[in-house]
Design goal:
five-stranded mixed β-sheet, 281 residues, single chain
Length: 281
């Protein structure tokens, strides 16, 4: 089974939180941080796919899991209405990570073939210290959440976008997320961020993505939550991982932004990825 990575000390973390990030030697709380694999775009840019995978924290199950998200970039909705998910949440699970990934790949194969999705496009920006391709060690997940960034600056010669900005906002929720707001406020205080103000009754933590041009001015809101689905499990924070662009022949460019979503799992923090898609112009 693939082992989670432990995060070593790096100068960028010292700049972000005022202290060097070190390996934890304490007993780790359980939690799981998904890793991601980019699959790619369809030739016309109308579809994008990626996989996120890992092993559930050992609360009720230690199952391996794999989720393959195939997204219509024109509507920012899942093809088929939902992602392909393979997981066993029973207490007697024997599903390994390798088995879960193989089963999900088999289910996704005909859909990926139908849309001819392959490795296309370019990564235009990334926060490499989010370790998106790794299953982060349990003890490091909450600290990874604390230092993750709310903005990305794409490479100038790769895109018209000079900055992608993420703002956390209040959005409607049918789930009681009061406990998650307490945790989010603690995180804001630790980072020196302004705490969200307003009545949180019937609300959950959502986010807004804004694109800025090379002149430094915002020109498009790529995404803004009006409601937060229960499947996000009352997020405690969001941050930016990376962005991709693909320009089909004779058609406008397509942008994909991967957002990290942190929430409280059965015994510790969990990380999952959300893909926001659309056209930069």
């Amino acid at each position: 089974m693939r082992q989670p990575v432990s995060i070593m000390a790096k100068p960028v973390f010292a700049l972000t939180i005022g202290t060097v990030f070190a390996i934890s030697t304490a007993t780790a709380l359980a939690g799981d941080a998904a890793a991601r694999r980019i699959i790619g775009f369809s030739p016309d840019g109308s579809t994008f796919a990626f996989e996120q995978y890992g092993q559930l924290d050992a609360g009720a199950s230690a199952s391996g899991y794999s989720e393959i998200d195939i997204i219509d970039t024109r509507t920012d909705e899942f093809v088929g209405g939902k992602p392909i998910l393979v997981v066993d949440e029973s207490e007697e699970t024997t599903l390994t990570l390798e088995q879960a990934r193989a089963q999900a790949a088999a289910k996704a194969k005909p859909i990926l073939a139908k849309y001819a999705i392959a490795s296309r496009g370019k990564q235009t920006a990334s926060d490499k210290f989010t370790f998106p391709g790794e299953m982060v060690a349990y003890a490091d997940i909450s600290r990874l959440e604390q230092v993750s960034q709310k903005w990305l600056s794409p490479l100038y010669d790769e895109t018209e976008v000079s900055m992608i900005q993420l703002d956390q906002i209040l959005a409607a929720s049918t789930t009681d997320c009061s406990a998650s707001f307490e945790e989010a406020q603690q995180g804001d205080q630790a980072q020196g961020n302004k705490t969200l103000q307003g009545d949180k009754t019937g609300k959950a933590l959502g986010f807004r993505l804004t694109l800025q041009g090379q002149d430094g001015k915002p020109f498009r809101t790529l995404h803004e939550d009006k409601a937060v689905p229960g499947s996000r499990n009352c997020p405690t924070s969001y941050s930016l991982s990376e962005s991709y662009e693909y320009t089909p022949s004779g058609k406008p460019a397509v942008i994909v932004v991967l957002v990290q979503r942190f929430s409280q799992g059965f015994e510790g923090r969990d990380r999952r990825f959300l893909a926001v898609t659309g056209q930069p112009r």
